[in-house]
């Protein structure tokens, strides 16, 4: 990839780059278990003419916990707005 970037070869090599957001990486967890990951691939065989496939993870326990924290935060904010009894 560096040789291609420097113009020392005309054929771009296949490559994959992974980015992880919001968590430490690398660590013991597989990248499939990370909250937000981005994979950059290029070039490679075409994806059947469909372009780049996007994948959204399925909701799991972490997603449910985030929703519960949002609800608790909203309840706490509502409590702060009430006048003292």
UniProtKB/TrEMBL annotation:
<dbReference type="InterPro" id="IPR008984">
    <property type="entry name" value="SMAD_FHA_dom_sf"/>
</dbReference>
<protein>
    <submittedName>
        <fullName>IRF5 factor</fullName>
    </submittedName>
</protein>
<dbReference type="InterPro" id="IPR017855">
    <property type="entry name" value="SMAD-like_dom_sf"/>
</dbReference>
<dbReference type="GO" id="GO:0002376">
    <property type="term" value="P:immune system process"/>
</dbReference>
<dbReference type="GO" id="GO:0000978">
    <property type="term" value="F:RNA polymerase II cis-regulatory region sequence-specific DNA binding"/>
</dbReference>
<dbReference type="GO" id="GO:0000981">
    <property type="term" value="F:DNA-binding transcription factor activity, RNA polymerase II-specific"/>
</dbReference>
<dbReference type="InterPro" id="IPR019471">
    <property type="entry name" value="Interferon_reg_factor-3"/>
</dbReference>
<dbReference type="GO" id="GO:0005634">
    <property type="term" value="C:nucleus"/>
</dbReference>
<feature type="domain" description="Interferon regulatory factor-3">
    <location>
        <begin position="1"/>
        <end position="41"/>
    </location>
</feature>
<dbReference type="Pfam" id="PF10401">
    <property type="entry name" value="IRF-3"/>
</dbReference>
């Amino acid at each position: 990839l560096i040789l291609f970037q420097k113009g020392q070869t005309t054929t771009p090599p296949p490559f994959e780059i992974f980015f992880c957001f919001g968590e430490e990486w690398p660590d013991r967890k597989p990248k499939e278990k990370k909250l937000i990951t981005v994979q950059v691939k290029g070039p490679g065989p075409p994806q059947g003419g469909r372009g780049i496939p996007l994948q959204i993870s399925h909701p799991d326990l972490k997603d449910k916990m985030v929703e519960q924290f949002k609800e608790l935060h909203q309840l706490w904010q509502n409590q702060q707005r009430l006048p003292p009894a």
